[in-house]
């Protein structure tokens, strides 16, 4: 006959087993919760770090934007300054053209048909009016009248409204024909001596011309046979055309500091690109 009372030892073991399982499950849940909390904290930290990076990037972008805006302002100022310098250069070029055309017109009225070389802005005097004999630098007697007329017109045009102050220098350029000159300094020296003789003639005929721009207005140069107007010269008349005097007008341009500023600006733009 089975007893109506259960075994107390067996009941106790069953309760211990159930309690064990419940404790294990609680530990697992607590561990999972801790892991979840740690993961959440890590995510929050990562988000904060990401936010800080974004904020730092925004700050850097704002700073870069400000730098670009400042550079644009500086570039705009420099462009405006350069445009002003270019206007000056264009005005100076127009002034030189007007000066040369006036001299050409005045000399034409005196029967001397000078030519303006457009590219080089050189005033070329025809050989029939001013020439030199073969291998000679002295001014022929029959040329002195034309040379005096050219000097008088030149002086008058330069003195008018103090135009000479806009001229850096006027080169009196001497030239020879293509035939070798073996004495002294060769064709180079012969051409320079011709230019010097013209300057000496004008200075003696017009003492005032030597005082323009504190006696710094005129310069002399010799090109020998390097700039022939009749390259295929055969006849004596052809060679005579090459033995000539040209007048080159060099105007005052923006000073060295302004030109250096323009050069530096473009170098700076190249570096940035």
What does the radius of gyration come to?
A: 47 Å
What is the average per-residue confidence, as pLDDT, rounded to a whole number?
Answer: 82
Q: Biggest sheet: strands, sense, closure?
A: 5 strands, mixed
- Tell me the CATH topology of the domain at 93-258: 60s Ribosomal Protein L30, Chain: A
Name of the CATH homologous superfamily of the domain at 93-258 = OmpA-like domain
Number of distinct beta strands:
5
Q: What is the CATH-assigned architecture of the domain at 93-258?
A: 2-Layer Sandwich
Sequence of strands across the biggest β-sheet: 1-2-5-3-4
Strand content: 5-15%
CATH class of the domain at 93-258: Alpha Beta
Question: What would the principal axes of the Cα set say about the shape?
Answer: rod-shaped
Share in helix: 55-70%
The structural class is alpha+beta
Ranges where pLDDT stays below 50 over 5 or more residues in a row are 1-6
Characterize this entry briefly.
With 273 residues, the protein is an alpha+beta fold. It contains five helices and five strands. A hairpin with a 4-residue loop joins strand 1 (115-117) and strand 2 (122-124).
Task: Please describe what this structure looks like.
- 59% of the residues lie in helices and 10% in strands.
- The protein has helices spanning 8-109, 144-159, 186-205, 236-242, 256-272, and strands at 115-117, 122-124, 167-174, 218-222, 245-251.
- Mean pLDDT is 82; it is low at 1-6.
- It is built from five helices and five strands, in the order H-E-E-H-E-H-E-H-E-H.
- A five-stranded mixed beta sheet has the order 1-2-5-3-4.
- The protein has a domain at 93-258: 60s Ribosomal Protein L30, Chain: A (2-Layer Sandwich), CATH 3.30.1330.
- It has 273 residues and is an alpha+beta fold.
């Amino acid at each position: 006959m089975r007893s109506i009372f259960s075994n107390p030892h067996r009941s106790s073991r069953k309760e211990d087993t159930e309690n064990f399982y419940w404790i294990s499950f609680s530990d697992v849940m607590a561990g999972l919760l801790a892991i979840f909390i740690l993961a959440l904290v890590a995510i929050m930290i990562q988000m904060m770090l990401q936010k800080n990076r974004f904020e730092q990037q925004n700050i850097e972008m704002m700073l870069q934007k400000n730098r670009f805006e400042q550079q644009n302002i500086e570039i705009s100022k420099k462009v405006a300054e350069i445009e002003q310098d270019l206007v000056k250069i264009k005005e100076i070029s127009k002034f030189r053209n007007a000066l040369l055309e006036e001299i050409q017109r005045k000399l034409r009225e005196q029967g001397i048909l000078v030519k303006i070389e457009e590219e080089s802005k050189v005033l070329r005097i025809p050989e029939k009016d001013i020439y030199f004999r073969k291998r000679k630098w002295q001014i022929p007697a029959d040329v002195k009248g034309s040379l005096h007329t050219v000097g008088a017109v030149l002086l008058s045009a330069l003195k008018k409204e103090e135009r000479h102050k806009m001229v850096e220098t006027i080169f009196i350029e001497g030239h020879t024909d293509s035939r070798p000159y073996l004495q002294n300094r060769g064709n180079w020296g012969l051409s320079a001596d011709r230019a010097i003789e013209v300057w000496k003639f004008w200075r003696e005929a017009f003492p005032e011309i030597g005082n323009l721009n504190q006696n710094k207005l005129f310069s002399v140069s010799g090109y020998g046979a390097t700039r022939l107007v009749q390259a295929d010269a055969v006849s004596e008349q052809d060679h005579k055309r090459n033995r000539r005097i040209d007048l080159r007008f060099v105007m005052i341009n923006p000073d060295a500091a302004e030109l250096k500023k323009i050069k530096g600006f473009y170098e700076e733009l190249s570096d940035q690109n």
